[in-house]
Amino acid sequence: MAEQTRSERVQEVLRQEVSKIIHDDLKDPRIGFITVTRVELTRDLRFARIFFSVLEDDKKELSLRGLKSAKGFIRGLIGERVKLQFVPDIAFKIDESFSHTKHVYDILEKLKEEKKEKGDVDKEGH
């Protein structure tokens, strides 16, 4: 098994720590039930893009605004809790992959139902 790169290890530590900070330390009512899905770091580890998903679709943008306003606070806590030479600048992005996956699943389910209904019609001799 290939050894994880430093960047991959730092990404995972940041994902876990930011998740803890959001759930334990932020009290912003704009922020819904958030899952930090992944972190992308630049090669020099100076910039991190933090992707998150929100359980309630209608709270995505509101949650993003809440996270953006807490960016400095979150960065400060990362600096206290994670031993890094530099605390990366952070940006939050809504992870749309779950919504996309759900949309594809819904389409497939609809096609499956239509095929089943068509099969039922064929069996009746129509």
Account of the 3D structure:
The protein is α+β, with helices and mostly antiparallel strands. It folds into two domains: 6-95, GMP Synthetase, Chain A, domain 3 (2-Layer Sandwich), CATH 3.30.300.20; 96-126. The protein is 53% helix and 17% strand. It contains four helices and three strands. The protein has helices spanning 6-24, 60-69, 71-81, 97-123, and strands at 34-41, 47-54, 89-94. The protein has a three-stranded mixed β-sheet with strand order 1-2-3, with helices on one face. A hairpin with a 5-residue loop joins strand 1 (34-41) and strand 2. Helix 1 (6-24) crosses helix 3. It is elongated and about 70 Å long. The mean pLDDT is 88.
List keywords for this structure.
3-stranded mixed beta sheet, 17% strand, 2 domains, 126 residues, alpha+beta, elongated
